[in-house]
User: What shape does this take?
Amino acid sequence: MNGNKPIVKERESGIELLRIILMLQVIFLHVSNFGEFAAINRDWGGIHELVYWINQTLCRCPVYVFMLISGYFSVTSKTTMQTVWKKAGTIYLPMIFYSLVITLILGTTGLVPVTGTEIVKSFFPLTSGTWYFMSVYLLVFILSPVVNSALTKLSKKDFQILLAVLFVMFSIWQVISKIEPIDLVVRTTSIIETTKGRGLDGFLFMYIIGAYLRLHRPREEKVAWKYLFLYVGFAVIDIIIVYASRGVPVLENYAKVVNYNNAPIAIIQGVCLLLFFRTLRFKSKIINKISTHNLGVYMVHEHWLMRNLIWDKIFVATQSPAFYTSPIYMVKIYAIILVIYVSCWIIDFIRGTLFDGVKKIAHKFRKA
Assistant: This one.
């Protein structure tokens, strides 16, 4: 018997481990884009290009999987449109904190040039797009009570039909429309363009898939290794298509869309990841604690001023072709990813401790 004590839901460490891995994948994608890993290795071809494609196809969909997880856990939430705002505030508060503090510190120290426009933007992190993921994530969360209410009323069959329609609209249609010359007859402009899967519509789509997995896909009793093998297998399939399609009319443009968030195979990979990690039934306070600061890791290293500091000053070496002549350059890349994760985690841990202290003081004043 619990008496009057509230029931605290214990985090599933398998899913929390997945969250940590996803954030490491996010950082890899930023090394790839801002650290020039992708551009240099694809230009060089050969083994360097193959190494790029292996890493890329295994790390290309972390933000979509985050939304899968959100839908998976939130669809059964009792949150309403009247109560959602309090939780939304807990998401927004770190956003405004980091937006203002990072701008203030980097601006006053001169580590990164800060313009008047950027100072103004720092007061509006949600609408200015300081972090596109955080903005869309928060919007999906605000809409979730209505979405959940609608989804839980659907029969399994209707839900499956809905998913099929959305998969065509927000994945297949999107990707095909970007391949020449198919784009002449299959277009999304002014219809359902999703900006490579980074918009609200694409995130809602993944939220809905996650909700379906929770409501209508029973969890396996044993560790479902088949999903991990499928995840890797689909990456291999995409790599084969990229190489085999070169010089083939129409298909040769596949490499342009393979890295989209909403690419069909990327979406299927994301589903496989969630289905695998939810079968890892173990408890770890350490993993659960590390995972609680994941969004903080994202906000710290992906703030546009921190991005400039990290990639143009601290790890500027990754932008030099000479960096990739080392036989252990991938080891260095992975080390950079870990350094960024740990450093930003420590920063967010300090932020969280500060927030907790302020809450305790405020609580004492309210009771006084």
Summary: The first helix runs from residue 13 to 34. Confidence is low (pLDDT under 50) at residues 1-8. The CA atoms of residues 245 and 262 lie 20 Å apart.
